[in-house]
From TrEMBL, chains A, B:
<feature type="domain" description="Aldehyde dehydrogenase">
    <location>
        <begin position="94"/>
        <end position="477"/>
    </location>
</feature>
<dbReference type="InterPro" id="IPR050485">
    <property type="entry name" value="Proline_metab_enzyme"/>
</dbReference>
<protein>
    <submittedName>
        <fullName>Dehydrogenase</fullName>
    </submittedName>
</protein>
<dbReference type="GO" id="GO:0010133">
    <property type="term" value="P:L-proline catabolic process to L-glutamate"/>
</dbReference>
<dbReference type="Pfam" id="PF00171">
    <property type="entry name" value="Aldedh"/>
</dbReference>
<dbReference type="GO" id="GO:0003842">
    <property type="term" value="F:L-glutamate gamma-semialdehyde dehydrogenase activity"/>
</dbReference>
<dbReference type="GO" id="GO:0009898">
    <property type="term" value="C:cytoplasmic side of plasma membrane"/>
</dbReference>
<dbReference type="InterPro" id="IPR016162">
    <property type="entry name" value="Ald_DH_N"/>
</dbReference>
<dbReference type="InterPro" id="IPR015590">
    <property type="entry name" value="Aldehyde_DH_dom"/>
</dbReference>
<keyword id="KW-0520">NAD</keyword>
<dbReference type="InterPro" id="IPR016161">
    <property type="entry name" value="Ald_DH/histidinol_DH"/>
</dbReference>
<keyword id="KW-0560">Oxidoreductase</keyword>
<dbReference type="InterPro" id="IPR016163">
    <property type="entry name" value="Ald_DH_C"/>
</dbReference>
<dbReference type="InterPro" id="IPR011975">
    <property type="entry name" value="PaaN_2"/>
</dbReference>
């Protein structure tokens, strides 16, 4: 490729060490990340500083983001930040009958580039994204409603980690089979049979990424990079309220592909008009052979049932449980839980919803505590955490959309309110809807309460469910995972028997379990290269981030064998 | 496990070297097999000799094969050999409401055994199967109609190879993630965050193997062992005409599981009454979370659409093509093709059906050959191969069922017959239906002929399709793979351009390609540990034997993390 600005050799030389470290990290699952999570680590070596990131974001407002895509028949937009500002950015609207064929044009060259060069190009894209982390952080903040620090960390380095992790898995999976082999089968006294064999990973076709509102990059990058690294073109269909982070991502990907001598149309954006619902149309196009989706159970189930021509990876709703039985660090437990319930106003797929607490109370290092005392203690811990408005704003972020606000307000009517949600004013964004969580007492023995705690109530709503015993809690945990799915389970217990019972439930129902977290790690956070996000084995998600199954079926291996 | 006859240590010590060799073979894809394919290699070290295998099979005839399964409510059978004899063996018929719960009872212990011990138990099962290879060969012969040598090789060592390959892939996939990890995240001047993590592979549930008539063991073992090695219980539902080989397999598996201290009900048989069609009922049971199926496209499509609670792996029908453009070994090509068309009367999913030959002829090392000359040459080669009845019987085997015979007879009316099928008498089995293949000339430019060559005509029927050019052939090849699927593609060409074009079609449509085979390797044969069987990327099959994707989603990994 004489005309490329980035030579294949340079790309591989630059990124191979990082790829190797990622491969080693997923093998050991020790802590590792190449992406700094301190805001001030940015601003040198071509990366945007905090201030430059803000300026870059401000410069985008009110502009047309022209990606140079073929088949653009309109310009669409309309994002309004949960913090109140109108972004005013417009994006290309695609005539998919033009765009999809254009996306296929460069696929043979991308396929022939092979796994290592594809991985290097993906890492170059991630590197450029990393340089613009602070710009993307503002884009994530003003589409998801996350507070800035979280938008920066979760939308920046942590999302990039998950993208890199997917590239590492994809690379490994493709090179498990050698590119060539000689096969010699002895035939006794006759000459052996000899074949030369070539094995080539081939893409499935065009992948469709259907983005979500709350974590457009964190939930989007794994599928995007897994598909691209395995040779597929990727069409990115963002959530209509969270277009900008993925549009910027697509822009960077197209720039890098061009510089590396590949067709930029291997990655394209499909923005839509309000209410157009193009995901439903795109998902069943014959060109679309892979779909990654994060969002509602209803649409996830629809995709699984209808997009039969595609491999479909879904993350849907679930009901996350915390079982509280006993602890040797009562204050640590309450503080840890308070943080988990408050972070991003509980608008995480991993936020605990149901806290199962024995009605006869629990044992702690501070003596026995009644159910009421535990709930009051948790309320107090939340209040302490969020008592200061500046700190509350930095933790809570804004309510992402009116549906969440409505659910929050309705939750207070579901039972006795142990901690009432309160409004918090945002000094910079007066229109932002900022609310502390609500904690509602329910009774696991009352059939009327079951409808509440057995449904996902996405947002800052937690139910303190009184249960008869730890065994009763384990049964309810099992039923909840089996029927509703769970992205996370947590438990607090000093009893080996209870621990074993909870662990057995999680093993049998395939849910990820965090035990006795009382410090600075929270049940709703997972670390790339070490923790699995979801299990793929219960109704909350049909795939985990990230494992072999997440990448292995995004490509196929074609063998060409010749008589030697 | 004090009461086991086989200790865990013994099992692992015995089988770990073989597992390691299998892991190395799938990595290099060089020739390897631990299972001898010479009949006389058996008879020592506990394996049945040819004569003892025959005696063991004869002793089974007319008996009840009691597997000691719970929930047995009837005894069913009725297999009649394609060679004419009634087997008279009866098998347990299951009350699945009793059997399925019983199969779950031992799953936690099997899960907790871990990947290495499970692999060792699977290899012990395969070893015991290997010892009874000659008994199983008769069972395969008298259910599939394969000739003895093929029933022995394909149904014995080659099937065992594919089972072992699946165990190796399953083992590797499960141990990619370590059992434990310590995760330490620096926090600047503060203490680091430290977690200890456990990662455990957990099964999906009960796997259902739906066996086929023609290769009950070869097509059955990969799914059976992939599911068992990943911790699932396996319910084996054989084809009603080919129960015995899989029933014997289940019996051996149950014996080994018992001796190793596990619940024998982890593997069970579901035989059925004539016309009962239990696969349709079993496939949608909520306990069934994995299905492996080989058979018709109609039922495979039904499974994919309806068994939504399960991971479904299907091998369905396809139309296999040979593109003949030029050769530097004309006789070798004709002899190789003649063998491929004749082996097991073309009743292989990998047998070529459409031979695409330019109407203006081809170039060869014996000078140019017209279309008619090539077809006549092939007919002559088939005649030479099958002219001797003893040799013909040894190659062809028997027609497996009346449908195949009917298709064979109807094929003669589809076009000009270049080689007429003839009846061959079998000296030992006068009732066996033995037929040589039919070769019918068709014209790729005639719309009337298209219906014939664009449908799968399973059995000893080949179409010599006249095409306009090599480019025309490549187009037809592409259309055939895309619309009908293909397990195999072969091409004969000395032109680099044609080779590149055919290769590009196979890469884009995901089909496995054999080039210029003129010796002792045939397009319809694949070798475990080296060749992929199917690609999983075209309509003939949604999975390949065997790759990471075949095993990675049969289990999930559950993580338990604790604050250190």
């Amino acid at each position: 490729m004489a005309t490329t600005e980035l030579t294949d050799h340079e790309l591989i030389a630059t990124h191979r060490p990082t790829l190797d470290q990622a491969l080693e990290a997923v093998r050991t699952r020790a802590y590792w990340s190449p992406h700094p999570e301190h805001a001030k680590a940015y601003g040198e070596n071509g990366s945007l500083s905090v201030a430059d990131g803000k300026a870059a974001f401000d410069a985008l407002l009110g502009t047309r983001l022209d990606l140079g895509q073929p088949g653009t028949d309109d310009w669409v937009g309309g994002e309004v930040s949960p913090y109140g500002i109108e972004l005013g950015v417009t994006y290309p609207h695609a005539d998919v009958d033009v765009l999809l064929p254009a996306m296929r044009a460069g696929q043979a060259a991308w396929r022939d580039a092979g796994p290592e060069l594809r991985a290097a190009v993906c890492l170059e894209i991630l590197g450029r994204i990393g340089d613009r982390t602070h710009e993307l952080a503002h884009a994530v903040m003003h589409t998801s409603g996350q507070a800035y620090l979280m938008a920066f960390q979760a939308g920046g380095p942590h999302a990039q980690d998950r993208g890199l992790e997917a590239v590492a898995y994809a690379y490994f999976e493709q090179v498990r089979t050698p590119a060539t082999a000689e096969w010699t089968k002895p035939q006794g006294k006759r000459d052996p049979l000899v074949l030369t064999k070539e094995f080539k990973p081939v893409p499935r076709g065009i992948a469709l990424l259907i983005g979500c509102n709350t974590f457009p990059t964190w939930n989007g990058y794994p599928g995007l990079f897994a598909s691209l690294a395995t040779g597929n073109a990727v069409l990115v269909k963002p959530h209509p309220r969270a277009v900008l982070p993925l549009a910027l991502t697509v822009r960077i990907a197209r720039e890098v592909l061009t510089e590396a001598g590949f067709d930029p149309n291997l990655v394209a954006l499909a923005a839509e008009r309000p209410g157009e619902g193009i995901a439903r149309t795109l998902a069943v196009r014959p060109e679309i052979r892979i779909i990654d989706y994060t969002g509602s159970t209803a649409f996830g189930d629809w995709l699984e049932a209808n997009a039969r021509q595609a491999q479909v990876y879904t993350e849907k709703a679930g009901v996350n449980t915390v079982l509280v039985e006993s602890t040797d660090d009562y204050r640590g437990m309450l503080a840890n839980l308070a943080f988990s319930l408050s972070l991003y106003s509980g608008q995480m797929c991993t936020t605990p919803q149901n806290l199962l607490i024995p009605r006869d109370g629990i044992t702690t290092n501070e003596g026995p505590k009644t159910y009421d005392e535990v709930v009051a203690g948790l309320a107090k811990a939340v209040d302490a955490l969020l008592g200061d408005d500046t700190r509350a704003n930095a933790l809570l972020g804004a309510i992402v959309n009116p549906d969440v606000k409505a659910r929050l307000e309705a939750a207070a009517g579901l039972g006795e309110v142990a901690f009432a949600s309160r409004e918090i004013a945002h000094p910079d964004f007066p229109e932002a809807v900022v609310r502390t969580p609500v904690i509602v007492k329910l009774d696991g023995a009352k059939p009327d309460d079951e409808a509440a705690y057995m449904s996902e109530c996405f947002g800052p709503v937690s139910f303190a469910v009184a249960v008869d015993s730890a065994a009763d809690a384990a049964d309810l945990l099992r039923r909840t995972i089996r029927e509703k799915g769970a992205m996370t389970v947590a438990a607090y217990t000093t009893s080996q028997d209870v621990e074993r019972d909870v662990e057995e439930v999680c093993l049998e129902e395939a849910a990820q379990l965090s035990l006795n977290l009382t410090g600075g790690v929270y049940v709703n956070q997972t670390a790339a290269f070490s923790d699995f996000h979801g299990s793929g084995g219960n109704p909350a998600a049909n795939a985990a981030l990230c494992d072999g199954a997440f990448v292995a079926n995004r490509f196929r291996v074609v063998e060409v064998r010749r008589q030697a």
